[in-house]
Amino acid sequence: MSPDARTNSDLDTAWTVRWIRRSAEVLAAERAALNTLDRDIGDGDHGENMDRGFQAVLPKLDGLADDATPSTVLKLLATTLISTVGGAAGPLYGTAFLKAAGATAAVGTLDGMALVALLTAARDGIVLRGKAGAGDKTMIDAWSPAVDAAQAAQSAGGSAPAVLTAAADAAARGAQDTEPLVARKGRASYLGERAIGHRDPGAQSTALLLRAAVDATRVTE
Ligand code: ADP
Ligand code: MG
After folding, report:
1. What is the CATH number of the domain that holds 152?
2. Which terminus has fewer CB within 10 Å in the chain: N or C?
3. Could you report how far apart the first and last alpha carbons of the chain are, in Å?
4. 114-144 pLDDT, tens digit each
5. How far is the CA of 142 from the centre of ligand 2 (A)?
6. Quick check: is 34 in a domain?
7. Residue 103 reports pLDDT greater than 90
8. How many whole angstroms separate alpha carbon 203 and alpha carbon 200?
Protein backbone atom coordinates (compact mmCIF):
# COMPACT_ATOMS: atom_id res chain seq x y z
CA MET A 1 0.00 0.00 0.00
CA SER A 2 1.55 3.27 -1.12
CA PRO A 3 0.95 6.38 0.96
CA ASP A 4 1.22 8.44 -2.22
CA ALA A 5 -1.93 9.84 -3.70
CA ARG A 6 -2.50 8.75 -7.27
CA THR A 7 -4.86 10.31 -9.72
CA ASN A 8 -7.72 8.11 -10.79
CA SER A 9 -8.91 9.33 -14.18
CA ASP A 10 -11.97 7.04 -14.08
CA LEU A 11 -14.61 9.07 -12.30
CA ASP A 12 -16.96 6.34 -11.22
CA THR A 13 -19.52 5.78 -8.47
CA ALA A 14 -16.75 5.59 -5.86
CA TRP A 15 -15.50 9.00 -7.00
CA THR A 16 -19.02 10.45 -6.69
CA VAL A 17 -19.28 9.11 -3.15
CA ARG A 18 -15.82 10.49 -2.29
CA TRP A 19 -16.91 13.87 -3.72
CA ILE A 20 -19.86 14.03 -1.35
CA ARG A 21 -17.84 12.84 1.66
CA ARG A 22 -15.10 15.38 0.95
CA SER A 23 -17.72 18.11 0.44
CA ALA A 24 -19.25 17.27 3.82
CA GLU A 25 -15.81 17.48 5.43
CA VAL A 26 -14.97 20.82 3.81
CA LEU A 27 -18.39 22.34 4.50
CA ALA A 28 -18.15 21.34 8.17
CA ALA A 29 -14.71 22.97 8.37
CA GLU A 30 -15.92 26.12 6.53
CA ARG A 31 -19.31 26.31 8.22
CA ALA A 32 -18.43 29.31 10.40
CA ALA A 33 -16.71 31.14 7.53
CA LEU A 34 -19.75 30.66 5.26
CA ASN A 35 -22.05 31.84 8.05
CA THR A 36 -19.89 34.95 8.42
CA LEU A 37 -20.11 35.71 4.68
CA ASP A 38 -23.89 35.29 4.88
CA ARG A 39 -24.05 37.44 8.02
CA ASP A 40 -22.41 40.26 6.07
CA ILE A 41 -24.98 40.29 3.25
CA GLY A 42 -27.77 37.89 4.29
CA ASP A 43 -29.07 36.19 7.41
CA GLY A 44 -25.99 34.28 8.55
CA ASP A 45 -27.16 30.71 7.97
CA HIS A 46 -25.51 29.57 4.74
CA GLY A 47 -22.78 27.51 6.43
CA GLU A 48 -25.33 25.96 8.76
CA ASN A 49 -27.66 25.12 5.85
CA MET A 50 -24.96 23.49 3.74
CA ASP A 51 -23.44 21.59 6.66
CA ARG A 52 -26.85 20.24 7.69
CA GLY A 53 -27.62 19.00 4.18
CA PHE A 54 -24.30 17.28 3.56
CA GLN A 55 -24.20 15.70 7.03
CA ALA A 56 -27.69 14.30 6.38
CA VAL A 57 -26.58 12.47 3.23
CA LEU A 58 -23.55 10.74 4.82
CA PRO A 59 -25.40 7.86 6.54
CA LYS A 60 -27.41 7.28 3.36
CA LEU A 61 -24.21 6.73 1.35
CA ASP A 62 -23.49 3.64 3.46
CA GLY A 63 -26.78 2.12 2.33
CA LEU A 64 -26.21 2.53 -1.42
CA ALA A 65 -26.92 -0.53 -3.56
CA ASP A 66 -23.96 -2.31 -5.17
CA ASP A 67 -25.16 -1.30 -8.63
CA ALA A 68 -25.45 2.41 -7.75
CA THR A 69 -24.23 4.74 -10.52
CA PRO A 70 -22.87 8.30 -10.27
CA SER A 71 -26.36 9.44 -11.27
CA THR A 72 -28.05 7.47 -8.46
CA VAL A 73 -25.65 9.02 -5.94
CA LEU A 74 -26.23 12.55 -7.26
CA LYS A 75 -29.98 12.00 -7.07
CA LEU A 76 -29.70 10.84 -3.46
CA LEU A 77 -27.75 14.01 -2.66
CA ALA A 78 -30.33 16.15 -4.46
CA THR A 79 -33.35 14.72 -2.66
CA THR A 80 -31.56 14.95 0.69
CA LEU A 81 -30.63 18.61 0.11
CA ILE A 82 -34.18 19.44 -0.95
CA SER A 83 -35.65 17.84 2.18
CA THR A 84 -33.11 19.04 4.77
CA VAL A 85 -31.73 22.41 3.64
CA GLY A 86 -34.05 25.36 3.96
CA GLY A 87 -33.67 28.80 2.49
CA ALA A 88 -32.62 29.58 -1.03
CA ALA A 89 -29.67 27.20 -1.16
CA GLY A 90 -31.61 23.96 -0.53
CA PRO A 91 -33.90 24.10 -3.56
CA LEU A 92 -31.15 25.65 -5.72
CA TYR A 93 -28.46 23.05 -4.98
CA GLY A 94 -31.15 20.34 -4.90
CA THR A 95 -32.24 21.26 -8.40
CA ALA A 96 -28.61 21.49 -9.53
CA PHE A 97 -27.79 17.95 -8.41
CA LEU A 98 -31.11 16.57 -9.67
CA LYS A 99 -30.38 17.96 -13.14
CA ALA A 100 -26.78 16.71 -12.87
CA ALA A 101 -28.17 13.24 -12.09
CA GLY A 102 -30.43 13.46 -15.13
CA ALA A 103 -27.55 14.47 -17.39
CA THR A 104 -25.41 11.50 -16.30
CA ALA A 105 -28.13 8.85 -16.13
CA ALA A 106 -27.05 5.29 -16.99
CA VAL A 107 -23.36 6.17 -17.30
CA GLY A 108 -21.10 4.12 -15.02
CA THR A 109 -17.96 6.20 -15.50
CA LEU A 110 -17.73 9.92 -16.18
CA ASP A 111 -15.27 11.17 -18.80
CA GLY A 112 -14.52 14.82 -19.49
CA MET A 113 -17.53 15.19 -21.76
CA ALA A 114 -19.87 13.70 -19.16
CA LEU A 115 -18.46 16.07 -16.54
CA VAL A 116 -19.13 19.04 -18.78
CA ALA A 117 -22.69 17.75 -19.20
CA LEU A 118 -23.01 17.32 -15.41
CA LEU A 119 -21.77 20.84 -14.63
CA THR A 120 -23.79 22.45 -17.41
CA ALA A 121 -27.00 20.74 -16.27
CA ALA A 122 -26.35 21.79 -12.66
CA ARG A 123 -25.80 25.42 -13.66
CA ASP A 124 -28.82 25.44 -15.97
CA GLY A 125 -30.98 23.94 -13.19
CA ILE A 126 -30.00 26.76 -10.84
CA VAL A 127 -30.78 29.36 -13.50
CA LEU A 128 -34.13 27.74 -14.24
CA ARG A 129 -35.02 27.75 -10.55
CA GLY A 130 -33.54 31.06 -9.41
CA LYS A 131 -33.50 33.14 -12.61
CA ALA A 132 -30.13 34.71 -11.77
CA GLY A 133 -27.87 35.94 -14.53
CA ALA A 134 -24.14 36.58 -14.72
CA GLY A 135 -23.05 39.35 -12.37
CA ASP A 136 -26.13 39.15 -10.10
CA LYS A 137 -23.79 38.19 -7.21
CA THR A 138 -25.07 34.65 -6.67
CA MET A 139 -23.71 31.12 -6.89
CA ILE A 140 -24.19 31.41 -10.66
CA ASP A 141 -21.11 33.66 -10.72
CA ALA A 142 -19.09 30.62 -9.63
CA TRP A 143 -20.99 27.97 -11.65
CA SER A 144 -20.95 29.76 -15.01
CA PRO A 145 -17.19 30.38 -15.23
CA ALA A 146 -16.74 26.79 -14.02
CA VAL A 147 -18.86 25.47 -16.89
CA ASP A 148 -17.02 27.64 -19.43
CA ALA A 149 -13.61 26.54 -18.14
CA ALA A 150 -14.66 22.87 -18.07
CA GLN A 151 -15.84 23.12 -21.67
CA ALA A 152 -12.57 24.74 -22.74
CA ALA A 153 -10.47 22.11 -20.93
CA GLN A 154 -12.53 19.29 -22.44
CA SER A 155 -12.24 20.75 -25.95
CA ALA A 156 -8.47 20.98 -25.48
CA GLY A 157 -8.43 17.23 -24.79
CA GLY A 158 -8.07 17.42 -21.01
CA SER A 159 -8.69 14.33 -18.86
CA ALA A 160 -11.67 14.22 -16.52
CA PRO A 161 -9.56 15.38 -13.53
CA ALA A 162 -8.13 18.21 -15.68
CA VAL A 163 -11.65 19.28 -16.63
CA LEU A 164 -12.64 19.34 -12.96
CA THR A 165 -9.53 21.25 -11.95
CA ALA A 166 -10.26 23.91 -14.59
CA ALA A 167 -13.82 24.15 -13.26
CA ALA A 168 -12.72 24.45 -9.62
CA ASP A 169 -10.09 27.09 -10.40
CA ALA A 170 -12.63 29.14 -12.36
CA ALA A 171 -15.25 28.82 -9.60
CA ALA A 172 -12.74 30.07 -7.02
CA ARG A 173 -11.96 33.10 -9.19
CA GLY A 174 -15.68 33.60 -9.84
CA ALA A 175 -16.46 33.57 -6.11
CA GLN A 176 -13.73 36.14 -5.48
CA ASP A 177 -15.03 38.27 -8.34
CA THR A 178 -18.44 38.59 -6.63
CA GLU A 179 -16.86 40.88 -4.03
CA PRO A 180 -17.22 44.21 -5.90
CA LEU A 181 -20.73 43.39 -7.16
CA VAL A 182 -24.14 44.70 -6.12
CA ALA A 183 -26.59 41.78 -5.63
CA ARG A 184 -29.65 41.54 -7.85
CA LYS A 185 -31.05 38.24 -6.47
CA GLY A 186 -31.60 36.74 -3.02
CA ARG A 187 -31.47 38.43 0.38
CA ALA A 188 -28.30 40.36 -0.47
CA SER A 189 -30.26 42.30 -3.12
CA TYR A 190 -32.05 44.18 -0.30
CA LEU A 191 -28.73 45.78 0.65
CA GLY A 192 -28.05 47.68 -2.56
CA GLU A 193 -24.55 49.15 -2.56
CA ARG A 194 -23.89 47.90 0.97
CA ALA A 195 -23.25 44.46 -0.53
CA ILE A 196 -20.18 45.84 -2.30
CA GLY A 197 -16.95 44.50 -0.84
CA HIS A 198 -18.48 41.23 0.40
CA ARG A 199 -18.14 37.83 -1.22
CA ASP A 200 -21.34 35.96 -2.04
CA PRO A 201 -21.67 32.95 0.31
CA GLY A 202 -23.33 30.70 -2.29
CA ALA A 203 -20.58 31.41 -4.83
CA GLN A 204 -18.06 30.52 -2.13
CA SER A 205 -19.80 27.23 -1.27
CA THR A 206 -19.89 26.35 -4.98
CA ALA A 207 -16.14 26.94 -5.20
CA LEU A 208 -15.66 24.67 -2.16
CA LEU A 209 -17.84 21.92 -3.67
CA LEU A 210 -15.95 21.95 -6.96
CA ARG A 211 -12.59 21.90 -5.16
CA ALA A 212 -13.86 18.87 -3.20
CA ALA A 213 -14.64 17.20 -6.56
CA VAL A 214 -10.97 17.62 -7.54
CA ASP A 215 -9.79 16.35 -4.14
CA ALA A 216 -11.96 13.26 -4.68
CA THR A 217 -9.99 12.34 -7.83
CA ARG A 218 -6.92 11.74 -5.66
CA VAL A 219 -7.22 8.29 -4.19
CA THR A 220 -4.81 7.18 -1.50
CA GLU A 221 -4.22 3.44 -1.50
P1 ADP B 1 -31.14 32.16 2.36
O2 ADP B 1 -30.71 33.32 1.51
O3 ADP B 1 -32.56 31.78 2.15
O4 ADP B 1 -30.79 32.36 3.81
P5 ADP B 1 -28.73 30.62 2.03
O6 ADP B 1 -28.12 31.59 2.96
O7 ADP B 1 -28.51 29.18 2.37
O8 ADP B 1 -30.28 30.88 1.85
O9 ADP B 1 -28.13 30.83 0.57
C10 ADP B 1 -27.82 32.12 0.10
C11 ADP B 1 -27.16 31.98 -1.26
O12 ADP B 1 -28.11 31.51 -2.21
C13 ADP B 1 -26.66 33.29 -1.83
O14 ADP B 1 -25.37 33.58 -1.37
C15 ADP B 1 -26.71 33.08 -3.33
O16 ADP B 1 -25.48 32.53 -3.81
C17 ADP B 1 -27.76 32.02 -3.48
N18 ADP B 1 -28.96 32.55 -4.11
C19 ADP B 1 -29.97 33.24 -3.53
N20 ADP B 1 -30.92 33.53 -4.45
C21 ADP B 1 -30.49 33.02 -5.63
C22 ADP B 1 -31.02 32.97 -6.97
N23 ADP B 1 -32.20 33.50 -7.27
N24 ADP B 1 -30.28 32.34 -7.92
C25 ADP B 1 -29.09 31.78 -7.62
N26 ADP B 1 -28.55 31.79 -6.39
C27 ADP B 1 -29.23 32.40 -5.42
MG1 MG C 1 -28.89 32.77 4.42
Report:
1. 1.25.40.340
2. N
3. 6
4. 999 999 999 999 999 999 999 999 999 999 9
5. 17
6. yes
7. yes
8. 5
